[in-house]
């Protein structure tokens, strides 16, 4: 929590103060109000910190993952290029090069280079496309079987055949929880691999190899798969990429769910915090409106009553106002003097007590100012003004509540750092 407090303290040291702190009700509290809410503010701050700390930190790679990056990874795994789609992918894109002069058996063995390992479509081409002059059928859907143009060592697959395979795959555009569906598909794939003594085979395998011949297999060969299944699966880099992406998507989905729940709880804590800060001000304002003697001399309503009687001395005095026949501003009927009218929140220490505010303002020199104490507690301070105080650049005797409230604002700012700044 120390770093959060440090960040808050640095914000309080700024001049001018950040708006969310400068405008805070914390800086308008009286010393009594600040003392009243400080333990509650600390409790809210501790709870906010606890809630935030409970959110499991997201893996850095998952945190960096964007929707665009995820789509590019999916496209590259599926089509061999991250800027392709089912309608414009080519056989060269899918296999990583032109395989017209390569043996189908070599192309359909998972290894680096122009092979079935390059993309999902390249793998499916080995599983689905009938060879030139061959008769195997029914391995994939009829649409995905192709036009039998792939001739080992003499002709590559046609672009249209590869596109037909891509377009025959089901659409999951409107599916819910795509990350989980991807994870499930990845988990199922190893269960589709068959083996002999030496190798593994994804697809339809009968004997010898995956050259597409009727008696052999339309498949992808994974060399030495029985000896090391993990290394065998790693020969399909598109599978590795999708496994990583699936994990990151699931982490991010879980994080987003937890984040939404956290935001809801923190919003409630923030609302409670704002209520705690405002309530003492409401109470102080009510007390001032009534006046220390129970009169309404400082009430805005009383000001209105006085304003009605600038031309009637009798009515002016009957309404508890003072009448000045020679008032320079023409406003002859005014509320009785003697207290700062802080009910509107404009005087120094607007939410402080009338006694503390008027008392400090009445001291015209530093020694008298610093002698103003209640027991050991300093009521006033000889200083320049801060934000929200009049005559900022003038040193004079000011209400000490602002200094107290700076400490309270530190608690408040720390809470806001937890509530907002992450």
From TrEMBL:
Spell out the Basic and acidic residues composition-biased ranges: 365-376, 384-394
Q: Indicate where this protein is primarily found.
A: membrane
Limits of the Trypanosome variant surface glycoprotein B-type N-terminal domain: 2-267
Q: Is this entry keyworded NADP?
A: no
Q: Where is this region: Disordered?
A: 290-310, 327-394
* Any one GO CC term of the record: side of membrane
Q: Which UniProt keywords apply?
A: Cell membrane, Glycoprotein, GPI-anchor, Lipoprotein, Membrane, Signal
Supply the name of the protein.
Variant surface glycoprotein 3089
């Amino acid at each position: 929590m120390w770093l959060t407090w440090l960040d808050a303290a640095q914000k309080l040291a700024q001049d001018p103060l950040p708006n969310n702190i400068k405008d805070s009700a914390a800086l308008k509290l009286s010393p009594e109000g600040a003392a009243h809410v400080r333990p509650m503010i600390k409790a809210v701050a501790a709870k906010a910190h606890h809630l935030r700390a409970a959110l499991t930190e997201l893996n850095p790679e998952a945190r960096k993952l964007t929707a665009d990056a995820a789509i590019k990874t999916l496209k590259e795994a599926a089509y061999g290029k991250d800027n392709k789609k089912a309608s414009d992918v080519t056989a060269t894109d899918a296999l990583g090069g032109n395989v017209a002069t390569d043996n189908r058996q070599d192309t359909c063995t998972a290894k680096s280079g122009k092979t079935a390992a390059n993309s999902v479509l390249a793998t499916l081409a080995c599983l689905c496309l009938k060879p030139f002059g061959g008769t195997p059928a029914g391995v994939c859907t009829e649409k995905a079987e192709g036009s039998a143009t792939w001739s080992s060592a003499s002709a590559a697959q046609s672009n249209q055949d590869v596109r037909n395979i891509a377009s025959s795959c089901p659409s999951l555009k409107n599916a819910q929880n795509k990350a989980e569906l991807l994870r499930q598909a990845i988990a199922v794939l190893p269960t589709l691999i068959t083996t002999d003594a030496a190798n593994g085979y994804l697809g339809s395998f009968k004997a010898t190899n995956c050259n597409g011949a009727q008696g052999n297999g339309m498949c992808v060969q994974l060399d030495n798969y029985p000896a090391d299944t993990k290394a065998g699966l790693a020969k399909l880099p598109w599978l590795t990429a999708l496994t990583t992406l699936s994990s990151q998507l699931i982490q991010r989905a879980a994080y987003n769910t937890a984040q939404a729940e956290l935001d809801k709880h923190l919003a409630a804590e923030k609302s409670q915090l704002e209520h705690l800060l405002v309530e003492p001000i409401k109470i102080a304002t009510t007390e001032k409106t009534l006046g220390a003697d129970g009169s309404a001399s400082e009430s805005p309503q009383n000001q209105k009553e006085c304003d009605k009687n600038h031309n009637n001395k009798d009515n002016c005095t009957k309404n508890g106002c003072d009448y000045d026949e020679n008032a320079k501003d023409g406003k002859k009927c005014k509320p009785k003097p003697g207290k700062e009218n802080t009910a509107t929140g404009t005087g120094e220490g607007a939410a402080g007590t009338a006694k503390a505010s008027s008392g400090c303002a009445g001291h015209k020199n530093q020694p008298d100012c610093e002698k103003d104490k209640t027991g050991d507690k300093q009521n006033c301070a000889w200083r320049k003004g801060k934000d929200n105080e009049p005559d900022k650049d003038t040193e004079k005797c000011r209400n000490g509540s602002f200094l107290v409230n700076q400490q309270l604002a530190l608690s408040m700012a720390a809470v806001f750092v937890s509530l907002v700044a992450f």
